[in-house]
């Protein structure tokens, strides 16, 4: 099972409501698994500042001391905004360097995301708890993906929750299971990607980030993924200014998409979409197997 | 005069209980909003109109009467239907009419993957196109597709009869095109009329089993006799 949702706001109309609409969507599919949940939102940042969202595995460390240590690494200022067991660092320094330093030096935290627009929160338990704890309903922005998990491939822990993100402003939620993720993880590590879990979906996220980092467009990256990823998957993917959906050629895992002039929404089930504003006029369809669907924000 | 039941106010189980308890009459189901298992297991001659799209397993195990979804239907529409009629005016997701033993399922729009998987006597009429692996392991009944069919139509088919008006991307293992004889033209005409769809039967092509798989080989009868039914060979 697992439930996934994605909401991509093409116009300004609902951007103040992004978090509330996303919280309502993931609430509707929580019957598909409540082991853990996560959400990534995009928007509200400026291009010169990188936000790094981290999660403490246990009692949170001294976040101010961590920020100070990061300042030394990045040779620039780092501010920190704690939120329960998460914290968001902000800096004009290099996010990729910061991520790797945190992974290598802070064993008790996970780096959930970095980039100018992304913030990512995840926790064990019901997605409604996640939404309440991290104030999802009040979040604004351009797009979001969220996940509610029935664990199959790795442990029920916060860091095994989706969305997974390994590269700048790129994240992925997955319904399904990959069968070649161990081999692929090794290949990607040899190419400089780094992972923090044994989860199959993190490998898919790393794969997409690797292809985007190698110069592929989102569409090109996902076309190649159809060849390189083996297993069952329905993916929803967010990038700094884009949104994508991909299903494997067999497409056992459900997906439905609705689109209006203002938004694109996808979910495992229609009930997550059924209450969105303007849904009566939406075009509703099921994404075809092995076909890449992408949208990007108007420049 | 039909009875309106609003799923915003009435829990799903209560709706289904009302439908099970009714002996006849009409019911309008309001605000389904993608709910699962709407109008499942109906055993009396009621008519149910659903105003909007439904989720998984709508009209599952349908035995008698009519269910019309005025919208799209999720996975497993009319799964294991026994008789009666189920119609969706929009699209249906995967596994529509799966394992259906009888009755009529009409999908006015497109059907997703595995439409009619393991069908055992149901008649299915699809106004649009169907996805991949339609009528997989289909045993009996008829599938009429006014549009196109996706890859591997009729894979491992037994004795169901498939008709498609549009392009068939590919036929599955042991499924072949067959001649449209007069009785097949008559069958398509009858099914189109039952589904209230307009098309010319002569535009359809027929597909069915080549009967070349091991389950059809009389050569295997010796082993079957030697080991008895359920042999492990």
What can you tell me about this protein's structure?
The complex is a heterodimer of chains A (299) and B (233). Chain A has helices spanning 18-28, 63-74, 95-105, 127-133, 181-190, 200-213, 218-228; strands at residues 3-9, 36-42, 50-56, 78-83, 86-91, 109-115, 118-124, 143-149, 171-178, 231-238, 242-247, 256-259, 263-267, 283-285, 293-296. Chain A has 299 residues and is an alpha+beta fold. The longest helix of chain A is centred in the C-terminal third of the chain and has 14 residues, at 200-213. The model of chain B has no long low-confidence stretch (mean pLDDT 94). Chain B has a single domain, classed as Glutamate synthase, alpha subunit, C-terminal domain (Pectate Lyase C-like). In chain B, helix 1 (12-21) links the parallel strand 1 and strand 2. Chain B has an eleven-stranded mixed beta sheet, covered by helices on one side. Chain B starts with a strand and ends in a 6-residue tail after the last helix. At the A-B interface, loops of A face loops of B.
What is the structural class of chain A? alpha+beta
CATH architecture of the largest domain in chain A: 4-Layer Sandwich
CATH-assigned homologous superfamily of the largest domain in chain A: Aminohydrolase, N-terminal nucleophile (Ntn) domain
Task: For the largest sheet of chain B, list the strands in their spatial order.
Answer: 1-2-3-4-5-6-7-8-9-11-10
Question: Biggest interface and which pair forms it?
Answer: A-B, 18 and 20 residues
CATH hierarchy, class of the largest domain in chain A = Alpha Beta
Q: Total domains of chain B, how many?
A: 1
In short:
With 299 residues, chain A is α+β, with helices and mostly antiparallel strands.
Topology of this protein?
The complex is a heterodimer of chains A (299) and B (233).
Chain A: E1 3-9, H1 18-28, E2 36-42, E3 50-56, H2 63-74, E4 78-83, E5 86-91, H3 95-105, E6 109-115, E7 118-124, H4 127-133, E8 143-149, E9 171-178, H5 181-190, H6 200-213, H7 218-228, E10 231-238, E11 242-247, E12 256-259, E13 263-267, E14 283-285, E15 293-296
Antiparallel strand pairs in A: 1-8, 1-13, 2-7, 2-8, 3-5, 3-6, 4-5, 9-10, 10-11, 11-15, 12-13, 12-14
Helix pairs in contact in A: 5-6, 6-7
Chain B: E1 2-6, H1 12-21, E2 24-30, E3 45-51, E4 66-69, E5 85-88, E6 104-107, E7 120-126, E8 140-145, E9 161-164, E10 175-178, H2 182-195, E11 205-209, H3 221-227
Parallel strand pairs in B: 1-2, 2-3, 3-4, 4-5, 5-6, 6-7, 7-8, 8-9
Antiparallel strand pairs in B: 9-11, 10-11
């Amino acid at each position: 099972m697992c439930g996934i949702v994605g909401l991509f706001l093409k116009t300004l109309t609902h951007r103040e409501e992004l978090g509330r609409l996303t919280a309502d969507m993931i609430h509707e599919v929580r019957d598909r698994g409540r082991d853990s949940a996560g959400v990534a939102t995009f928007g509200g940042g400026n291009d010169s500042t990188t936000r790094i969202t981290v999660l403490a595995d246990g009692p949170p460390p001294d976040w101010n001391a961590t920020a100070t240590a990061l300042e030394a690494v990045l040779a620039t200022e780092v501010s920190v905004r704690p939120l329960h067991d998460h914290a968001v660092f902000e800096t004009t320094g290099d996010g990729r360097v910061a991520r790797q330093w945190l992974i290598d030096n802070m064993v008790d935290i996970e780096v959930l995301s970095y980039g100018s627009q992304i913030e990512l929160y995840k926790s064990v338990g019901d997605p409604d708890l996640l939404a309440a704890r991290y104030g999802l309903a009040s979040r604004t922005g351009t797009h979001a993906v969220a996940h509610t998990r029935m664990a199959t491939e790795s442990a029920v822990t916060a860091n095994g929750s989706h969305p997974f993100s390994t590269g700048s402003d790129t994240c992925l939620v997955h319904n399904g299971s990959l069968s070649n993720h161990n081999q692929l993880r090794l290949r990607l590590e040899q190419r400089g990607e780094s992972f923090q879990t044994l989860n199959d979906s993190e490998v898919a996220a790393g794969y997409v980030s690797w292809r985007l980092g190698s110069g592929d467009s989102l569409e090109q990256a996902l076309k190649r993924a159809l060849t390189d990823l083996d297993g069952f998957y329905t993916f929803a993917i967010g990038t700094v200014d884009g949104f994508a959906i991909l299903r494997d050629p067999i497409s056992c895992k459900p997906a439905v998409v609705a689109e209006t002039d203002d938004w694109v929404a996808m979910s495992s089930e229609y009930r997550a979409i059924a209450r969105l504003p303007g849904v009566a006029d939406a075009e509703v369809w099921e994404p075809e197997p092995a076909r890449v669907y992408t949208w990007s924000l108007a420049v | 005069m039909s009875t309106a039941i609003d799923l915003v106010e009435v829990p799903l189980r209560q709706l289904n209980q009302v439908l099970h308890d009714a002996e006849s009459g009409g019911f309008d189901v309001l605000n389904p909003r993608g709910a699962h298992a709407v109008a499942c297991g109906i055993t009396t001659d009621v008519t149910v109109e659903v105003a909007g799209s439904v989720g998984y397993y709508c009209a599952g195990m349908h035995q008698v009467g009519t269910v019309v979804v005025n919208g799209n239907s999720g996975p497993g529409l009319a799964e294991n239907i026994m008789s009666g009629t189920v119609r969706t005016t929009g699209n249906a997701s995967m596994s529509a009419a799966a394992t259906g033993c009888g009755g009529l399922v009409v999908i006015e729009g497109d059907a997703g993957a595995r439409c009619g998987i393991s069908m055992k006597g149901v008649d299915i009429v699809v106004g649009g196109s169907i996805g991949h692996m339609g009528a997989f392991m289909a045993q009996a009944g008829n599938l009429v597709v006014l549009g196109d069919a996706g890859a591997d139509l009729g894979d491992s088919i037994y004795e169901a009869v498939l008709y498609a008006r549009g392009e068939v991307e590919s036929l599955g293992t042991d499924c072949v095109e067959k001649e449209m004889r007069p009785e097949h033209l008559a069958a398509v005409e009858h099914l189109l009329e039952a589904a209230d769809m307009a098309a010319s039967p002569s535009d359809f092509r027929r597909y069915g089993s080549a009967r070349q798989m091991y389950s059809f080989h009389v050569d295997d009868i010796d082993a079957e006799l030697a080991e008895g039914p359920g042999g492990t060979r």
